[in-house]
């Protein structure tokens, strides 16, 4: 009985913390708007309103209501979530956020990025339907993975023998030869220059599951192909599992690891024009 109450209390505390984070994001986005409108010496003369606008976005309101009334909370801990939120705050503008996985934390991620572009990739069409039924405003796509977790070691050994998997020549769209490449994603994934990528899917805890090998590899390719200056922030969850850890060290690189909390690693990956076949 004691354990059940302790679990319930932890869930309640996480829910309260998430609501607080979303409320903070409301103030953050309002502060951004105030900064934009108050940068002139005489806003009244220019017909620009300079008052602080606290109006939250619809996604933020839905998220606050959801997490304030639901017993289901995000899988990540408060400390893990805070690392990603701090990056969004530091960027100081709406970002382009790609999330591998659709679930109970999706409303939270969307609410952290009002005015930005947040896209979710999920392997289970039925699960997409379930989540979007309660949160129809989320932007989600179903993804087909070609890998299984049981093949993780073999894929890691063999990718170096396929030229289109090598760092210098790797690409995604239509790359059937490289089994780690996500070659069939929606066009907007390839056409968008992502500021932040969260890898918290697909499933990776039984042999027949897709595993996160392709998600990690493809995120590295996306980040390295960035055209504008600056880093792509890549977050990988469940690094306590061997596959996530090994693939992160192979493709996202230890020297790009800048922060961590619990089971989450945060990488800052710069654009790369290296001719090396290796990622790290």
From TrEMBL:
Keywords: Membrane, Transmembrane, Transmembrane helix. The keyword Chaperone does not apply. One of its GO terms (biological process) is xylan biosynthetic process. It is found in: Golgi apparatus membrane. One of its GO terms (cellular component) is Golgi membrane. InterPro entries: IRX15/GXM/AGM. The keyword Nuclease does not apply. PANTHER family: OS11G0490100 PROTEIN. This is Polysaccharide biosynthesis domain-containing protein. It comes from Psophocarpus tetragonolobus.
